[in-house]
């Protein structure tokens, strides 16, 4: 305890090293030990950081083997193109220009086939256009005499770079030709600059184009033939997954609200799925954009209406906003009395299950790519339950009188006559339930919006009509 | 009419050319005229397309002059770096490596200073690391004998490219070092490939690094000194703008619901502002990411808590979801009776105006970067109005009896006694209003969440306390 008093002025030291013995507080050896401990902490911190990083990396590898294969593909494409380079005949032919093949592979190889194709086409066309324009401008500059040549070239670089950069700001251009415009600026600058020195412009252009062609073909072959990741397929799976998540969240939310605490465990895990729907806009847009570049693959032909998927996604989001609000109402502090909840329990649960059934049916339509005859009947069921819920709401004021005066309820039980005084029920108590109910009705309306968009997709993509096997009803 | 009969079989022709005279339907000259017309249509279509495109471009230039200046800056940086190239001494020193300076400028120059700095640092470090590693691997490969050299080199390219590509999938790495990893793969492949041929590796590395340094410094100087666009400033303005839009939308929505048709015109233009808040997540994240690279500028120091802006943005989005729902309820088909609306009109309008006042006050806090003493009182007012609305809701069942039987209302007017029979009011009719009211209460709760996040920002960024001038109350 004497030691404790001695070092009372350095209490913060002790707090910093809560596991240390009191020996560590002796000033002489303290400094060394402290720095040792710091070093140890740093080493432990770094080790833990690397460990958690590797763990995260391992998880990505295990959960998304496609990404792992993509890495191997990039490595393979690069070592392939390097092999080209190691072979002397090719090197002799193309000289240092061969590095453009390596560069093309590194820059152009993307995760999805669509993105790779988009970049390849952009790169090839932009290089060709900018090369031709560069040579043209170079010829014009040559005509202007030696004095004006650099000025003309420099001014043309300024003008074209500024114009191309400006076009990159226009959203519709940016979505499709952003990379092309970048390569256009790059190639034009390089050609007009190097043209001033190197006189073999045409030869250089030819070499550049053929090395880029080598790089591009290696990229396209590797990305299309070895475990291809199609942007279209990814978009399709994303929309399907989101439909499922939306259905699960809706079910989960309503179940959480109306059922007892014991059964909550199961539903809560699916509760947050709708958040993925809220945040998937950017992914959907880029996927749809890349999917347009892809050739026919799997069940999708070349002109598959990818834009319609964006509309489905957008209508799903507008439904997800309501589920977010519903979720907020459910976790609100003001909770309705149990008796009132019971009144709505049955019809709300039925409405949510019918609504999520419609979503699941849409998921089936999407998955099987056949028009499901069951969708119509599930929508009908959903709408019927909406009407039921509405009549349950209509009948509520009368019920209120019963609910809120248990004594009266007991005495009046079975009588049709109402109590003689109007009930001064705090509406605030019934409000949470009625809000949940009206949100459910709105959600049903939004789900009809999704149904319309999926129907439109089915028409545009010419989904097969439902077969006998697929539907319970006999096919017409 | 006879002519009409004659061509009745080609009615669709007439529909296609509604402005044409009947002469155009004569088959002989029809084909030529038809193709003329097609050509004309195509030309008109192209002209219109180009016109609308230029119009869009012009609009961007006029509305966002910063973007226009950025284009000029890119052009200037490129012509500057080309000028370097035209000067023979530099060319003699660096040879064809000088093109790396051009390439660096094209690829690295971004719209915001933060993005440019991020790319510059990434490029410089990645080039240095990959270069050193490449030379190291090249030395190891050299020791393995001429036969194994290409194999070792090729395998190392495969391994490192695959590993670096994998790291690009990890979100935290991707956000900050995506470009660096790309350049790492590129440089390592180029060094190990060209090292096999060119023996002057060190000289090349030196040249590469110095040309990149030229490009990088031109980029940094141009982007930071000429009308700099700071990512931090952009993020700050975006959050401020969104706060305003949220306030306007809230006001607009509630006003649209409760006021007459005559005054709707003014409010509806601001109604859709909250949609920008819903969709700004990706922009906010990338801006916050780039802002971290920026040095102190304007009112922001180097370690400004940019991450806190993301939290503010996220709490604003959770509020915007409710406004979206509110907007849906307002445009819903079922509308409450006017008498009921009037009951809530006053208190709802006050709540919405107090709520939007809080938002505007937060906007002022952000704009002036001083803790506003008014915020607290506006929050208090808002919460007080929430309580008023809650008591308005509590008193509703009693009111219902009055509203729904106008005859009774007339006879009972002024009396405290309630009607003798409980009212069988369709709750469905009052539901829209109560839902709007409960959404408004939830929105107020979400706004308190925004207040907390802004307070946290004020603490982290050490906003000045409110001055005498800034607040109506005397400073303590």
Automatic annotation (TrEMBL), chains A, B:
Residues annotated as transmembrane: 68-86, 98-117, 124-141, 153-170, 177-197, 209-231
GO cellular component, one term: membrane
Membrane topology: Multi-pass membrane protein
Protein keywords: Ion channel, Ion transport, Membrane, Transmembrane, Transmembrane helix, Transport
Subcellular location: Membrane
InterPro entries: ALMT
Example GO biological process: malate transport
Family assignment from sequence similarity: Belongs to the aromatic acid exporter (TC 2.A.85) family.
Protein's recorded name: Aluminum-activated malate transporter 10
Organism, as annotated: Escallonia rubra
């Amino acid at each position: 305890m004497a030691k404790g008093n001695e070092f009372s002025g350095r209490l913060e030291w002790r707090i910093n090293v809560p596991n240390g013995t009191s020996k560590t507080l002796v000033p002489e050896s303290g400094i060394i030990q402290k720095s040792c401990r710091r070093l140890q902490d740093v080493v432990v911190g770094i080790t833990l950081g690397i460990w958690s990083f590797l763990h995260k990396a391992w998880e990505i590898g295990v959960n998304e083997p496609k990404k792992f294969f993509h890495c191997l593909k990039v490595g393979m494409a690069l070592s392939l193109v390097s092999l080209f380079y190691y072979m002397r005949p090719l090197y002799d032919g193309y000289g240092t220009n061969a590095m453009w093949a390596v560069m093309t592979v590194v820059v152009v190889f993307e995760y999805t086939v669509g993105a790779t194709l988009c970049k390849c086409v952009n790169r090839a066309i932009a290089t060709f256009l900018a090369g031709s324009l560069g040579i043209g401008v170079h010829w014009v500059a040559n005509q202007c005499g030696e004095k004006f040549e650099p000025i003309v070239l420099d001014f043309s670089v300024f003008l074209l770079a500024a114009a191309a950069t400006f076009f990159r700001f226009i959203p519709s251009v940016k979505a499709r030709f952003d990379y092309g415009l970048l390569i256009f600026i790059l190639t034009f600058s390089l050609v007009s600059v190097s043209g001033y020195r190197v006189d073999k412009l045409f030869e250089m252009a030819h070499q550049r184009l053929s090395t880029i062609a080598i790089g591009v073909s290696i990229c396209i072959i590797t990305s299309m033939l070895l475990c291809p990741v199609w942007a279209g397929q990814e978009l399709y799976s994303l929309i399907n997954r989101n439909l499922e998540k939306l259905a699960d969240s809706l079910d989960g939310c309503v179940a959480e609200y109306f059922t007892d605490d014991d059964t909550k465990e199961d539903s809560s895990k699916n509760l947050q799925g709708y958040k993925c729907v809220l945040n998937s806009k950017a992914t959907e847009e880029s996927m749809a954009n890349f999917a347009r570049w892809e050739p026919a693959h799997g069940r999708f032909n070349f002109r598959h209406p990818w834009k319609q998927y964006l509309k489905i996604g957008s209508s799903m989001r507008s439904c997800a906003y309501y589920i977010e609000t519903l979720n907020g109402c459910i976790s609100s502090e003001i909770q309705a009395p149990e008796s009132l909840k019971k009144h709505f329990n049955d019809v709300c649960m039925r409405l949510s299950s019918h609504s999520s059934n419609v979503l699941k049916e849409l998921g089936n339509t999407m998955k099987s790519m056949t028009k499901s005859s069951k969708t119509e009947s599930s929508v009908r069921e959903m709408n019927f339950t909406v009407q039921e819920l509405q009549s349950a709401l209509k009948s509520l004021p009368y019920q209120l009188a019963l609910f809120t005066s248990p004594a009266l309820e007991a005495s009046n039980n079975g009588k049709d006559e109402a109590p003689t005084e109007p009930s001064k029920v705090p509406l605030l108590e019934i409000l949470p339930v009625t809000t949940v109910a009206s949100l459910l009705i709105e959600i049903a309306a939004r789900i009809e919006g999704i149904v319309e968009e999926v129907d439109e997709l089915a028409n545009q993509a010419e989904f097969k009509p439902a077969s006998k096997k697929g539907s319970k009803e006999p096919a017409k």
